[in-house]
Amino acid sequence: MLIRENMELLERAYLSPFATLSENSRGREKEEEQCDIRPVFQRDRDRILHCKAFRRLKHKTQVFLSPKGDHYRTRLTHTLEVSQNARTIAKALRLNEDLVEAIALGHDLGHTPFGHAGEHILNDICKGGFKHNEQSVRIVEKLEKDGQGLNLTWEVRNGILNHQTHLMPSTLEGKIVRFSDKIAYINHDIDDAIRGKVLSEEDIPKEYREILGNTTRKRLDTLIHNIVTNSMEKDDICMSEEVEHAMKELRKFMFQNVYQNTMAKMEEERAKDLLSRLFFYYIKNIEKLPEQYLQIMEQGETRERVVCDYIAGMTDQYAIAKFEEYFMPKAWQVN
Fold this sequence. Notes:
With about 325 residues, the chain is an all-alpha fold. It has helices spanning about 5-15, 40-50, 50-55, 75-95, 95-105, 115-125, 130-145, 155-160, 170-195, 205-210, 215-230, 240-260, 270-285, 290-300, 305-310, 315-325.
């Protein structure tokens, strides 16, 4: 018997009746031979971890643009924190850790440079709009591996697509990531805001601190324990009404006091202007795009969408470098 088949038997014997078993996956868009060692969701996790879009996350802004310090979160560290929260919950509930981790590692692959500022400007100027969750799926389906995509399973793609608040994944594992994303960014953004002197712990309304805790560690502990306790032996992932309400209100507080704070976002308009100018430059000078993107356009994709793909894939530093190359004056060359 293959190692993979033994692992699938272990899943069947140990995991919750509500878990998504690897052997029951709806499969991939393109059929392929199974790995002899890894079940399908573990294989998806590995594909995401090794892809170029994942590596670029280390140089993409989470919330604070160009922070002065080494300890602010990036899109990569956010992703890893989401993954850790999700795996803790999944293990406690005996759900599929491989599926949870694959969704978590892939959920933000489509994020732009300069955080949500980049997402907002591309949504405004690109025909058809732009949403990072949809772009994440586009990356794994069409853009990675020079247009071949990663050929991930349906369950992983569904979890990536539906990780946002107004959407709902089809698996419990996807629902765990959806909660874990909020838990991660609310708490690490508070930590970063305190580090950046945008916020102090005492600024957080007392009623939320009394329910959730008065430190990042205590809030994480409360939220994760609450999900585990309230989801045990259920075909759902849920929180108690009191704790979920406090988390949602704390999220609103963060939008009002951090995400839309003048000091925290003072560079946002500059970032939007930079990406907007790059977008229209490439629309007029399409030949400047790498060959991979020109090939996608030759296959029938619109110019706007291909330019959007290229800009969305940039890191913060690369976008700045391209802006300087095209728009900043250069010194005369003296022979």
